[in-house]
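Sequence design from tokenized structure. All designs in this work follow the same two-part layout: the structure record, then the generated sequence. An example of the structure record is given first.
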């Protein structure tokens, strides 16, 4: 990275939000044990993301919430162990998704970045309502200048148009923005669009060698914040 960007743009789902409690939600509706797993192995998340990508590639789009409900219905439909009606189970899990907590390193990391004079925003494939809820609960909503969603531009990340939309709204050039994400496919897409990138490697695994764009690598947001503020 040749210069320090002035705008930091965060992915939201799992980059900032802790999705581990999703396992509890699946278990509470009586879903099979294999569905109640962390996001990186969870069939639900693994189903809805490719569907969103495919629709963008086909020239159309759909809301994250609709894809999420559809994927849940397919997964839970054949479960004989549910302890409630299928629709009720779907809504219970989706409601819990809207109320996930932040990772413990996020509030302090965000505050350090803000004190360092950086302009903060989010860019999610989901709804901005999730970020609003997360930040309001944690008391850090005022640290963010903009909460953005691909729902307002009609293409999902990692399509270039999603990142270009963020640059337009933030009033800056793509190369003056840093995309922070836990997902390598998001890092790759942002890099190809011209953004600087920082991978938050929460899982501890290697960065896939078929993706490009890895510039900065950190285990937590506080480590990233310390590096950028210095």
């Amino acid at each position: 990275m040749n210069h320090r960007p002035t705008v930091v743009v965060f992915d939201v789902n799992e980059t900032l939000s802790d999705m581990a409690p999703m396992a509890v939600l699946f278990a509470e509706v009586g879903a099979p044990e294999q569905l109640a797993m962390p996001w990186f192995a969870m069939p639900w998340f693994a189903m809805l993301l490719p569907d969103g990508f495919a629709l963008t590639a086909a020239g159309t789009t759909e809301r994250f919430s609709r894809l999420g409900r559809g994927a849940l219905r397919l997964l839970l439909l054949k479960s004989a162990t549910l302890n409630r009606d299928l629709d009720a189970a779907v809504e219970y899990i989706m409601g819990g998704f809207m109320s996930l907590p932040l990772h413990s390193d996020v509030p302090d990391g965000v505050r350090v970045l803000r004190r360092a004079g950086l302009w903060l925003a989010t860019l999610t494939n989901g709804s901005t309502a999730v970020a609003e809820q997360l930040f309001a609960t944690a008391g850090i909503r005022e640290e963010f200048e903009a909460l953005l969603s691909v729902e307002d531009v009609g293409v999902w990340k990692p399509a270039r148009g999603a990142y270009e939309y963020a640059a337009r709204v933030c009033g800056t050039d793509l190369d003056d923005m840093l995309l922070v994400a836990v997902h390598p496919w998001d890092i790759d897409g942002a890099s190809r669009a011209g953004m600087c990138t920082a991978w938050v490697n929460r899982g501890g695994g290697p960065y896939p060698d078929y993706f490009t764009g890895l510039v900065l690598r950190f285990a937590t947001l506080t480590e990233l914040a310390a590096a950028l503020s210095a």
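The longest helix spans residues 43-57. We note this feature because it recurs in several other targets discussed in the main text.
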